[in-house]
Amino acid sequence: MAxxxxxxxxxxNFMYLVLTAMLALNVSAEILNxxxxxxxxxxxxxxxxxxxxxxxxxxxxxLMANDEGKVKPRKEKADQVRQLSNDTYTYLDSLxxxxxxxxxxxxxxxxxxxxxxxxxxTRIMENQKKGPALEKQLSTYRNxxxxxxxxxxxxxxxTTLPLHVELPVQKGPVKKDWTAYHFNMVPTIAAVTLLSxxxxxxxxxxxxxxxxxxxxxxxxxxSFDKMAAFVSLNSxxxxxxxxxxxxxxxxxxxxTVNPTIVINGQPVAASEGKGVYELEVKSVGEFxxxxxxxxxxxxxxxxxxxxxxxxxxxxxxxxxxADKMNVMYVALQNPISITAxxxxxxxxxxxxxxxxxxxxxxxxxxxxxxxxxxGKAVITVTAEVDGxxxxxxxxxxxxxxxxxxxxKVGLTKGPTMKAAEFKVQQGLRADLEDFVFDGVRYxxxxxxMGIESRNRPYAEGDATSEMWPANPELQGxxxxxxxxxxxxxxxxxxxxxxxxxxxxxxxxxxxx
Length: 512
What we know:
Elements: H1 7-23, H2 29-66, H3 68-102, H4 119-127, H5 130-146, H6 154-160, H7 178-183, H8 188-219, E1 229-233, E2 237-238, E3 243-250, E4 260-263, E5 266-268, E6 270-271, E7 274-280, E8 285-296, E9 302-313, E10 318-322, E11 327-329, E12 334-340, E13 348-353, E14 358-363, E15 366-370, E16 375-385, E17 388-400, E18 406-409, E19 416-417, H9 419-423, E20 428-431, E21 443-452, E22 459-463, H10 472-479, E23 486-495, E24 501-504, E25 507-511
Parallel strand pairs: 2-9, 11-17, 19-25
Antiparallel strand pairs: 1-3, 3-7, 4-5, 4-8, 6-7, 8-9, 10-12, 12-15, 13-16, 14-15, 16-17, 18-20, 21-22, 21-23, 23-24, 23-25
Helix pairs in contact: 1-2, 2-3, 2-8, 3-4, 3-5, 3-8
C-alpha cells in the first residue's frame, strides 16, 4: 500500500503548500489558525499510520512462529526500520518543543502561546544550526531505510519514497539554503506544522518499506516448477562404530509422491517423499556417497538428478568451542578451546580461514584467535595420527564487530536526571553493557553539548574528549543547572577497541 497516494494525504500536502504561499502575503490570525488545523490533521494522520505500521510489525511476529527461517531476515530489517523511524520521529518532536519553548511555551490548555513568533524558528534552526543537523538527519534516515530494500527494487523506491530532502527550484538572484528556505522568518506554528509534515513523511516511508518487506516474505516462496536432488547427512565427521544416516529428497518435493532412489548402487525405499539410507562406518578416511534420484512429474516427464556427498571418518572425536560463545569479535583476542579424544594435546594444531583471521596456540588445548573483518570464519583442526597429518574436524564461527556502547552521564542513560547528580559529573561516558568479554572499553572522542534553561540563554559547546566542553558559558550553565532544564548531546563520537570511530545516537536529559 502506497500511503502517500491516499486522497487525504494529498489534501494535507496541498493545504500546507497553499498556507505557506499565503504567508508571503500576510500573517493573519486566520492563516495562523489554518496552520493549526493542518498541523492537527497531520498529527492525527501520523497516529493512524503509526497504528497501521504497528499491525504490520505484529504480523511479522505471528509469521515468525510459523516459518522463522524465512521470516526472520525480513523481520530484522523491519525492526531496523522501526528503530530508525522512531528515533527520527522523536528527534523532530524535540525540535518542535525547542521552537515552542523559544516562542514562549504553551498556555494552560496546551496551545502555543505565540503562534506568530518569527524569531524562534530562525533562532533555533538557523542560528543554533539545528536546521542543517535536521537536513542531515533526514537524508541519513532516507538512505538507511532505502539500503534495507532489495537492490533491484531500490531505484523505484528512491523515486516514490515520500520523504525527500531537496530544495525546489528557486527563481531570482538570491538562493536560499535548505534551512533558510524552510525556517527563516516563518511563524512558529508554520515551523511546527512543517516538522509534523516531515514526521508524516517518515511514517509513510516507514509504511512503504515494511510493507515491501512483508511482501518479500511470500515473494521468495518457491513454486514446484524446478527440481533438484538434495542429500543431508546426520554428520560429516565420524569415528569407527558410529552410524551414518543420509536423507535424500528432490527439491520442492511432495509428501504424497515418492521418488526412486539409488545410493552407491543400492535401492533405497522412499516414504513421504524422502529416502533414508543408513550405513555403519568402519575405516578411517574420507568417503563419499553418490547416486541418482528419479521423480515422475504430473505431465509424465521423468526427472533424473544425480547427487554426491562426502564425509570423513577420523580416529578421534574433536571439540572446537569458543570460550565466550559461538561467535568471535573483530580486534579482540578470542579464546578457543580444542580437544581431540585419544590424541595428545601437543599433536593437535589448528588453522583459520576467512575474516583475516590468525590463530595462536597458547597451551594444551588453548588457542587465541584474532580477526580483522566481519563475516564467517572456519577453524580447521589437524593432528598427527599414526605418523601422518590428518584433518580431524572444522567448524564455522560468526565474526561480529564489538557492539555499540551505551551513552551515559554518570550511571544514567536518561531521559531524566537529578540536578544535584548532574552537577557532580565531569563528562560523558560510553559503557559496554552485558558484554561477554571483560575489560573492553570505548573512549568518547567528541560530542556537542547544549543546555537549554528557563533562566539563562541557551549555551552549547564542542568536546574533544569525554570531559565537558571548557567554554565558560557552558561551564556556568552546568554549575547553575536546575530542574526543568534540558541537556542535549549530539554528534557523539566514540572509539572502540578496533580503533574505529563510531557515531552514536543523540542523547537528551531532562533535569528534575
